Amino acid sequence: MKWRVLLILLLGAAAIEISWHPCKLKTTTDQPDGHKDFDAECADVKMPLCHDKICTDEAKEISIFLKRIPATQPGVKPKALWMLNGGPGSSSKSMEDVMLEAFNAAKETVTLYTMDHRGTGRSTILQCSKERPRGQDLMDCLASLRQRFGDNGPIAFSVTSAAMDLKTIVESSTFADTDVFIYGLSYGTYLVERLMHLEPQRVKGYTLDSVQSNQLKTGKEAQFNSNWEKGAGEVVRKFLSHCDENKFCKSKIGPDAKKTLKKLYQKLDKSKLKCSSPLQAIAAKYGVKSPSVVVSQILFDWLTEPEKRVFIPALIYRLNACTADDESWINELELPSSLTETNDKAATVEQPSGPFLNGAGSSDVAFGTILFSELWQVPSVTAKKLNKYSLEALMSMESERHIEETIATYCIYVGNNDKVCTGKDKLSFVYPRDKYWGESPKIPDGSSVLMLSGELDPATPIKYAKQELNAMVGAEKLLVSFPSAPHDVLAHSPIANTPSESCALDIILSYVAAGGNVKAVKKDCVAQVEKLNFETWDEELSKELFGSKSPYEKTTSQSLLNAAAGESKSNFLAATVLLYGVLAVSAVVIVIMAVYIRSMKQHNDPKAETKEDSGKPEGNDDANGDAAIDSVVIISEDGDSVMSNSGSTSSKSRVDSV
């Protein structure tokens, strides 16, 4: 093995041979057949653990997993488009559907490629016995990885090492006479920028979607992960200002949506709202201190998804006006993983070389190694400050518990070599920052850069894309901004009336078709991308989240109960009126009968008539009988018949009152 690694180091790209074999586009163990009617090609490429000038280990090799969809209609000059995922620590699994979409949109004229970053997925993976190890579990895991890969372990899985893998591959014979384009998403943009430093041959263009800036020497406001909440807070405020500018949204939580949200948090935490109780129960269950933090995490989760973010004003509105009836849908709310995640999941067993992947293929260790080596402030910000940033953001994926866990994890990775750390263990798993760190790359000769950024992206705010654009040396560069897009513009730039079509994808393919000429890129579709609209929403999603078609109305179950109660009341009133009507008619009939009987008696009993005519006092049995008949027509207010001697005049007034 030693001679093979030496040969690779000596001969460079010429020694790399990629052997492709048929595989399915979807190759996870839980979906082994994937797209049954669609085949791809896979390869496992051997790479040295240590690339030249990065570290030294002449004995060890690792495996890098590749996948491609070959073009069926290549042009005279073949084109290849690489699609690299973010993370750090994520595999290429989520790129597979995107590759197929791009392949079809390009009418099968471009070959699509992806790879699992070293340390992740189906490449040689950095893995522990638990998916998200913490504390002693993490220390034991890092110790075992140190033993496996030696002291070079951390730097062997660095950003520059992964960029060297990609440089070596694109300079291999596979890409001879091919124009290569490379797309990176989120952390993938950071990897692509590192590749630009290495100036690989054959690459005509680099596309950066949701940009991670290299300007990390600029001070406390740099795009470190430890500054995440600061940048996110600016985007939250921008989103809420859009609400203030919209008549409908303003009518619900305006005129100052930010102030409304702050007051809501205060009322929830002081238990001044009916909704405080169920939210406090959720907070207690997941180790969060207050109801407002639960709501903050839900809102941030919704902010990242265009389908859900239109419900943010509705949630604020409903919580502000909540009653005991609202507890049902609050208890049914889907909570974000940032709130509910635990560290007790067992990790999947590492797969042998081949196309199959068990699970997502993410590596928590690859994430931590890169994050704490390159994308975290040193010395670290304190947990107290991080919590302050989180609260000020108003919508945040963080909680005090999670922040404390992050600081504890950071201390383990850096061997407690920081003033924020209290531990004694000195075993670390980070690497020193190299000459490329903190430096924006020069655009390599013969290539160009296309940047895509969403103006409502809380993860990688557009201000950092502008910063990187200005710092890059070279004229062939273009930034396309999307006013309503969140993170991951490729996935979140649907064209109005044809939402299945991605404007960002159209722009990327236009860039590829133009051979990397940024001046020829067609970007007219940006004006046609769906805009943020607070007045329309997915009714099915509204029912799922709030239990009703409109998120501003009561839940369906409560509405049905109210409707049923209203119907019962209406039926009762109708029955009461009908009863009164029947009784009234009966009373009239009785009166008529009484008059008729009296007249008949007078007609048949002349003596009685003579007595009346003679003015003799009444008081005979007939008169008493008449009084008895009159008494039965008196009706009480509740509709029941009562006995009374009040006379016929009183009886009439009661009947009329009904």
Automatic annotation (TrEMBL):
The chain crosses the membrane at residues 572-597. Residues 603-658 are annotated as: Disordered. Residues 642-652 have a biased composition (Polar residues). One of its GO terms (molecular function) is hydrolase activity. Residues 81-225 form the AB hydrolase-1 domain. Residues 603-619 have a biased composition (Basic and acidic residues). Residues 1-15 form the signal peptide. Keywords: Hydrolase, Membrane, Signal, Transmembrane, Transmembrane helix. Belongs to the peptidase S33 family. This is AB hydrolase-1 domain-containing protein. It comes from Aphanomyces euteiches.
